[in-house]
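Key result, reporting period 2: structure in, sequence out.
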């Protein structure tokens, strides 16, 4: 998908760019969409619990089937490839032999009119979904189950993929885009191919208003705030933070400290840490 730079008619549009996406311009399937209430980073009492969230364009949520195991062995035709405002990847509308329709994450090179299958063992082809133990080594996969039967949880964003390296007993070894090598149950399901919209990272937002449409409010330096709101706050003008090291709004070290829980049970599944 080519990236298009707009004419620099003003400072706000001088670096703005967008993608020409190869998607079908159709309305989403009504039975697979529902309204989504925006919380704008606030809790039930209206108190702000997540900073820099709020506003944004109205959108309906598309119900994605990350599992697909409820229709094992059924062949499905790709009806449309659609844009989804709730995620970076494109989505595909599938129609099964029994008439059921679902949305799934569209991999790169999946075309309208093609057929996909989810089964324990099937052909290794873009869009198909099967158990890890039946996938050929060195295949690129996405939408990977981390817990058997819970549906895909890893590698779902635009341009993402993992590479199947091999098998070790009841586990499959995969290498993620970050360089991390980890073990996943060989009985878990995964989809074949690379997630669509590879050029998503090349987009230049260009102006503040476009960021507000995404539901992201401006970020303010801690030193610009009051002492009651941030440890860096207070002082005359933009003075130094007055601390040995930067802190988060809650007083914890902000730079260099590892945030992963040391007691996380999945740590034993990581063979090589990400680079």
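The corresponding designed sequence is given below.
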């Amino acid at each position: 998908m080519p990236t298009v730079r707009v004419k620099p008619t003003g400072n706000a549009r001088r670096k703005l760019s967008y993608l020409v996406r190869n998607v079908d311009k159709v309305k989403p399937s009504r039975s697979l969409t529902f309204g989504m209430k925006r919380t704008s980073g606030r809790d039930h009492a209206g108190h702000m619990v997540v900073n820099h969230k709020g506003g944004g364009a109205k959108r309906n949520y598309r119900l994605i089937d990350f599992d697909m195991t409820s229709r094992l062995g059924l062949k499905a035709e790709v009806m449309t490839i659609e844009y989804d405002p709730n995620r970076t990847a494109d989505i595909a509308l599938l129609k099964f032999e029994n008439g059921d329709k679902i949305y799934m994450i569209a991999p790169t090179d999946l075309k309208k009119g093609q057929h996909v299958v989810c089964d324990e063992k099937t052909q290794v082809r873009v869009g198909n979904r099967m158990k890890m133990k039946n996938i050929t080594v060195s295949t690129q996969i996405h939408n990977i189950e981390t817990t058997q039967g819970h549906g895909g949880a890893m590698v779902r964003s635009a341009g993402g993929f993992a590479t199947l390296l091999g098998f070790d007993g009841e586990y499959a070894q995969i290498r993620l885009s970050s360089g991390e090598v980890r073990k996943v149950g060989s009985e878990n399901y995964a989809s074949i191919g690379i997630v669509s919209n590879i050029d998503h990272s090349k987009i230049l937002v260009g102006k503040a208003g476009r960021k507000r449409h995404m539901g992201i409010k401006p970020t303010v330096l801690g030193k610009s705030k009051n002492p009651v709101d941030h440890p860096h706050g207070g002082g005359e003008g933009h003075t130094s933070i007055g601390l040995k090291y930067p802190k988060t709004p809650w007083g914890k070290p902000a730079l260099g400290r590892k945030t992963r829980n040391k007691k996380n049970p999945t740590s034993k599944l990581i063979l090589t840490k990400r680079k």
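The chain has two domains: 3-29+62-200, 220-264. Helices lie at 208-213. This case is discussed further under Risks and Mitigation.
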